[in-house]
Amino acid sequence: MDTLPRDWPEWLETVKTFSLSDFLAWALRTFSPDLAFSTSLGREDQLLLWHLDQTVATLGLSPKSLDIFTLDTGRLHPATYELWEANRSTFRLPVRGVYPEASAVETYVNTQGINGFYRSLESRKACCQVRKVEPLKRALKGKRAWITGRRADQAATRQKLPLLEWDSAFGLIKINPLAEWTQQQIEAEIAVHKIPVSVLHAQGYPSIGCAPCTRPIADGEEERAGRWWWENPEHKECGLHLAVEPKFRFQREKAHGPS
Ligand code: SF4
Prior knowledge:
Layout: H1 8-14, H2 20-31, E1 35-38, H3 43-58, E2 67-71, H4 78-90, E3 96-98, H5 102-112, H6 121-140, E4 145-147, E5 164-167, E6 172-175, H7 183-193, E7 249-250
Helix pairs in contact: 2-3, 3-7, 5-6
This protein binds iron/sulfur cluster.
């Protein structure tokens, strides 16, 4: 889609009172099969995967009703690969891997170094461009909507995160069904449903990215403080999520939690 869909105003009206399951069911009914869900295998994404697995089964849909993928940068934590593998026996819905172009990685490494991203913001963004942004663009091609597990209280860069937004860069609707949830609510829901999560969370990593660019956080630090910890907070995004104009965003006046 190149322009804001005609149904945008109607959608804003429809989703006003939605719970998480309502949101996912609506997304599947409205956008399937042109619906994507990108997972980093962090706890928010595991929670969404569990709910999507249930919702697809409840609605009697095929596992091909949406495209679930993870960006395998080649630099992920070993624990992330272990969880990804374990998901194969936990969920009916598969998570496919999306990979960077081999020649682009080779050029980056041979010109900037295998860990060149520590040297400057430009070099770090160049690495994220090759290993994340370009593969994401490929994965989202032709999709009409994209579900993400982002939350507003994760970081300064996400404080105004809406539930629904029109992403003109990718030409699709971005759905952030956990935008209003707190970390405590996520953890409680995970405990209730016994959803498997990465062992890294218990080791002090609330936010999981590439191994060399993520470290555990200290008490009181914001959740994404361990991502690119050597940079200023306003730079802590990898280019996957770009700013959206206020008229293309939807936030509820009163936040809904898990129910
Ligand atoms: S997070 Fe680090 S290793 Fe991963 S793509 Fe970005 S700069 Fe490269």
